[in-house]
Amino acid sequence: MTDKITNWTSADDAMVECAIRRGANRRELLKMLLAGGAAVAAGGVVLGRATQAVAATPVSGGNLKAAGWSSSTADTLDPAKASLSTDYVRCCSLYNRLTFLDKEGKTQMELAESFDSKDAKTWTVKLRKGVTFHDGKDLTAEDVIFSLKRHLDKAVGSKVAKIAAQMTGFKAVDKSTVEITLADPNADLPTILALHHFMIVADGTTDFSKGNGTGAFVLQTFEPGVRSVVTKNKNYWKSGKPYLDSFEFIAISDDSARVNALLSGDINFAASINPRAMKLIGGQPGFELSKTTSGNYTDLNIRLDTDPGSKADFVAGMKYLVNREQIVKSALRGLGEIGNDQPVSPANIFHNADLKPKAFDPDKAKFHFQKAGLLGQSIPVIASDAATSSIDMAVIIQAAGADIGMKLDVQRVPSDGYWDNYWLKAPIHFGNINPRPTPDILFSLLYASNAPWNESQYKSEKFDKLLVEARGSLDQAKRKEIYNQMQVMVSEEAGTIIPAYISNVDALSSKVKGLEANPLGGMMGYAMAEHLWLEA
Questions:
Q1: Where would one find the signal peptide in this protein (predicted)?
Q2: pLDDT class for 275, splitting at 50, 70, 90?
Q3: Which residues have a Cβ under 8 Å from the Cβ of 193 and sit 6 or more positions away?
């Protein structure tokens, strides 16, 4: 018997796909294939191909109910004030940004048709025409200017006020053209404006309870701390989207309860599942797990301006003492990618893949500890549940130290008050950093000499100069080269140890289709509602 298919055409493929959509069973489908000249083995290939094609074809209709892990009575529909994942999900369903990041981390246009600049300081933004708000108002340059200028108003309380402060001038060139002037050149402006907070709202908006945006859904119900319900925007400017008729979003803080709600059919989508709760889904038919590694990490911070971090050999010894493979396998239960002690993750287009992680080498670690004169001394290490998996990481590092006579005193402190009392303060402690879209934001926030969150008190004039140079250059190849060099500097010189980039896991019904990874986080960077569909 041969696997060759005779006289089989794309029309025959379409016939099989149509039969699958009508609900034909496997026996009926194979009978159809055999009648068309397909051998049994080849028929299986065709059937698999047709099934995949059907699954990948968006279907309109249906109501999706999803649960996140956090909510508050302070939940808001004001993009500038958004601070929780629940805020981001709702804002992404109601509003649009000028740009967005695709699954590969590349900046794509959304409400903007183009972003152009000759010097990275003055930017001309052309807006799409034919875009309307939910209330019927046309999108104009004034809406964009109003939306961006809000972040500069202290009374608004924008969560990205410091990032927005670089925008110093706004001009409506015409109805669909905006000119933005920066205090200093920044080639990342199009990417920065892909952050969730920079959603575009209508000029003059003060009441955000109606969620009046240009987005894929129109607000029906919003109960802060409880739930939101949005319905399909039938006048949406993106042809064919959204696929869903409605989308309901709630929060269930307990991981097991969130998974149980999924398994019982109360929800279709359970976001950010704890590795321990994942066992509840294992082997259950009709459910899937989706993993996204987008740049979130827990790091061990050794302050370089105080003992023992002031001794370079102690820092070097600690970097060799970290068993990254074991941390990913045990502390993160396999949900992570090995890190190389710098914050730009593989999800970022500027990630330096040639920079190899420090190998686990207890002998080298012992050599450096002896050279520092600290082998055998008791060294406090502060850990807390506040920093994801830091306690498990600390125990693994502590055990490796004990094997070579290095005494690491792991002190577990409460989550409450950790970020105020220990983070950035204790000589050796853990941090947890959320994904950021650009190396410039990460380096400016965490490693520049004047960085507000300089976790290890790393200071380098050369690094600071490179940061400014890369920020102002429109030459992407040159920027890549500079950022590669800066990642090497951080990895080798700073006192931060980043063992792994942590994966986020969402759990969902197998009927939910269209989910992809995104560098801004799980749930497709919180923008899933517009892109998902329910299998018929």
A1: none
A2: confident
A3: 97, 98, 99
